[in-house]
Amino acid sequence: MSEAMSDGDLAAHLAEVAGRILINVRASGLFSPKALGKAGDQTANQFLVHALREVRPEDGLLSEEEKDNPERLAKSRVWIVDPVDGTREYGEERSDWAVHVGMAVDGEAVLGAVALPGLDLTGSGGGTVLRSDQPRPLPDAPEKLRMVVSRTRPAKEAVAVAERLDAELVPMGSAGAKAMAVILGQADIYLHSGGQYEWDSMAPVAVAQAHGLHCSRIDGSPLIYNQEDVYLPDLLICRKEHAEQVLSLISEVQVSA
């Protein structure tokens, strides 16, 4: 059955099941917060990488929790996963953490699923999964914009741009949760400049782009995946009507710094 799944269905299924596994690991009550993060990361990673190697053996694979295999660089299709994005938030039993399962084709983020296991929008108790192949309508933007930032280390560029926009800062945990907040209408701009890796943004970018959002580096250049160096330090996700102004303000902030 899994081999007959579409890539979109597979990504969503893997993200949702990994999220359930993580909830069960946390509910065991056996781990301190620090140990819980490690146990959850490793358990979810084992599920994801074994499943992908079983059902998509010809594709490349890059995971935060797996030793990198350079063979992926020769592949057109590469799955990029983050078993627990927001390990700290997961360990603290917050809701702002995520599971990322995405696929890049020739370096472009084309498909993704982001599970938010701690955020139950339907009342089913099963968390929420946002998918690139099933976009939902975006809520209308409010008059006063909101910029989602790290709850522990807000990027200085983001804070400075928010001041110039008179935007409200919305602190939040994981990159996936922040990106999905823009889709869900909890925020309007996600600007990050504090350092990330491909697995932090690939699936969220695929989902955000499918929902009609602008996604780029903070200099406006495209986000390119499946690179030898997986460091991809900055990111802008926002509504397309705000992109030009935000990118211009980023340049102003960087010049005046």
Describe the structure.
Pfam families: Inositol_P. This is 3'(2'),5'-bisphosphate nucleotidase CysQ. It comes from Sphingobium agri. The protein is an alpha/beta fold and 257 residues long. The protein has helices at residues 7-27, 33-55, 87-91, 156-165, 175-184, 198-210, 240-256; strands at residues 60-63, 77-85, 98-105, 108-116, 128-131, 146-150, 168-172, 189-192, 213-216, 235-239. The strands form 2 sheets. It has a 5-stranded mixed sheet, with helices on both faces. Strands 7-6-8-10-9 form a 5-stranded mixed sheet, with helices on both faces. The longest helix is centred in the N-terminal third of the chain and has 23 residues, at 33-55. The model has no long low-confidence stretch (mean pLDDT 93).
Could you outline the blueprint of secondary structure elements for this entry?
Elements lengths: L6 H21 L5 H23 L4 E4 L13 E9 L1 H5 L6 E8 L2 E9 L11 E4 L14 E5 L5 H10 L2 E5 L2 H10 L4 E4 L5 H13 L2 E4 L18 E5 H17 L1
Helix pairs in contact: 1-2, 4-7, 5-6
